[in-house]
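Task 17 of the worksheet. Students: predict the tertiary structure of the chain below and write it out as structure tokens. Keep your answer in the requested format; marks are given for formatting as well as content.
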Amino acid sequence: MTALFALATSLLWGVADFGGGLLTRRTPALTVVVVSQTIAVLVLGAIVVATGGWSEAGPQLWCAVGAGLVGPVAMLAFYKALALGPMGVVSPLGSVGVAVPVGVGLVLGERPGLLQLAGIAVAVAGVVLAGGPQLRGAPVQRQTVLLTLLAAFGFGAVMALIAEASTTVTGLFLALFVQRVTNVVAGGTALYVSARRGSPVLPADGFPWRTLPAFAFVGLADVAANGTYAIAAQHGPVTVAAVLASLYPVVTALAARGFLSERLRAVQAAGAGLALMGTLLLAAG
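Model answer:
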């Protein structure tokens, strides 16, 4: 069950990132985040009311609040790093955040077997290579590296926090709702400040209402990914769940290949193969 839900997480995050990347070609990234997460809040709020999730309120929800605060900061740092570039360095370096939930699992006493350790090493190497690391070219600015590491460990912290925010399914709905409300408040504040400073928050021709279903898809896929990861982490080793859930860059690369006809570089194809091999090792272990 851990492997199944963790792989579902990587699939959902991968397609959400792909969809979000397409939307940010015409709409500012912060607007995409706030709109998509607002839709997720409305859906999750209805689910919490329908399932009676409020009864699961407790101190553990502070973990959800923490995830909601860290998430937007990590996302903005990542987008800023991508803007500074080069993307061939930023994308694979962003995957090192998996060290956070893996480290948490080890601190809590998890001890993967030799086969699982090999799978972790192979899968992480595959994820890094699938990002198409740029090994040559102009030197990377120190600010870019620092922003990317901030984003990576922020994403890893969100994974660790959301796994601790609930112990039941209804509690998970409530935790995800609290996380998303916090996301919207933090992101909305940043969006307001950005608008006050004169930065564009909408395309020149106004809000793209025709793409609203795409915004909904991105927001709900991201929420579902957090949910499946929490379930995976609760039912099995966090070290395994975190690595398998971090395969989403492979999904994004393959989606770009399938829908946008982007050609995979040799290093990306090799990375996808290693990621698959690591997945098989983890599942077998």
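Marker's comment: Residues 126 and 274 are 5 Å apart (CA to CA). Residues 169-196 form the longest helix (28 residues).
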